[in-house]
Write a structure and sequence with these properties.
This protein has 3 domains: 86 residues, MazG-like (Helix Hairpins, Orthogonal Bundle); 33 residues, no CATH class; 76 residues, no CATH class. The chain has 10 helices and no strands. The longest helix has 24 residues. It comes from Paenarthrobacter aurescens (strain TC1). This is MazG family protein.
Amino acid sequence: MPTPTSANSPLDQLLGTIAALREHCPWMGALTHESLVEYLIEEAYEVVDSIEAGAVDEELRGELGDVLLQVVLHARLAEERGSFNFEDVARGINAKMVRRNQHVFNADGSLRESFPASVEEIIVKWDAAKRAEKPERKDPFEGIPPHLPALAAAQKSLDRAVRAGLDVDAQGDLAAVGLPLVPASEEALGELLLAVVAGAREQGLDAERALRAAVRSFQNSQAQTS
């Protein structure tokens, strides 16, 4: 096992440090996958906050390190029970990226001689690669995390529906229920969303729960017509 003071790579040193902490630090040794969930979510949001705030590179580097720590910890817990280790995680995601990006890589991981000219072509090839991995998956919404925030779940669901060729008429839906069309800028859209949440609050309604229910209804209706 590499030690924190070894001359190995920085990643090897990090793996050694976490291994030592798991063995000798009672707090670190008591961590479980379940107890780490809140930290994983928190650290991911801190990266988002850092990016959206226009953080300097040093701050962003630190936040990314905190996310990497979560990955290393989960991999270490799995290694201790004889399941998999960090190298397995890295090997798996690398193989997945090669497999999913057939527009860039050959099956053996070597680069293709030519590459697609448009993002649209890339998306088509990416989706085809995903379908080839799991041909039994028919539901376009399968795999969307159920605990995503409602707005993120709504946007991802709409994106999945469009990419699956389903009929999505957002503007028509808004007009049908008497709501204004979506503003042309993100600033105006944010103000509209805030106003909707404020109105919901005054009526004693839970905007997050309401949108989550609407997303589920949208997914169910689209699944029935696909």
